Amino acid sequence: MDADDRIVSVDEVPRETTFLFTVRETSTDEERESILVRSNGEITGWLNYCQHFTHIRLDKGSGAEMRDDEIVCTNHVAMFEADTGRCTFGPCDGAYLEDIEITIDDGSVYLTDSDYEFVSVGPNETSTDLTSTSNIEF
Ligand code: FES
């Protein structure tokens, strides 16, 4: 594994919430936020954008919340299965989060998705795609 692709150690991926990091899409050179999620002993990676409004982040800036092994969008409370990304409740019921390929190796999580490059841990500081502050966008 390439050290430049290392996101975080497995032990640092939280159980009650998600781990937020930033990637760069290689085809557009745009930075996008992503999350790591722990569920049933597995870690999965998803872009941090809802499928109700795909320009809106799932979280309020510190990683999406989890409830009963599902990722919760804080905007209009859509819920997504942590292992499949499928929306089970909310305005985008049946839609899937965009996945991001990761690999676990020697206790660390690596980004191994050829569509993205790892940028940094934490939010995308240059992002203008703000999380919704209103609930009237149904
Ligand atoms: S933006 Fe996520 S549920 Fe509306």
From TrEMBL:
Positions of the Rieske domain: 5-111
Pfam family membership, one: Rieske
Q: Which InterPro entries match?
A: Rieske_2Fe-2S, Rieske_2Fe-2S_sf
Keyword match Iron: yes
User: Where is the chain membrane-spanning?
Assistant: none
Annotated GO MF terms: 2 iron, 2 sulfur cluster binding; metal ion binding
| Keyword terms | 2Fe-2S, Iron, Iron-sulfur, Metal-binding
Highest taxon, organism lineage: Archaea
| Protein name listed in UniProt | Rieske (2Fe-2S) protein
Protein's organism? Halocatena marina
